[in-house]
User: What shape does this take?
Amino acid sequence: MLTWPALLFAPSLLLGSLSLNYALVEPSCHLQTTIALNGVSAGSLALSVIATLLAFGRWRTARREADPSAPALRSREGFIAAVATGVGTLSSLAILVISLPQWLLPAC
Assistant: This one.
């Protein structure tokens, strides 16, 4: 259960953050502040990292509980958790990279 947020929610956060940041550029330009842009990016990054850490914790637990002689059904949990950790990490890095220009360049 702890793997699904990183697997589904983190990529959705990435796309949602990108869309909201594009929508908030014009209001930020009129107000001459990037607080809304930075808030969206920071919130998305924080939620994505939390989801990734939950998946990573589940992966570690699944590796500890794994029995080499067990059927493949037990190893599926660890595999899904590993994939969710990778997807969450990639999504978190993408949110960070997408946010770099707004920190380095002015909104207008």
Notes: The first helix runs from residue 4 to 31.
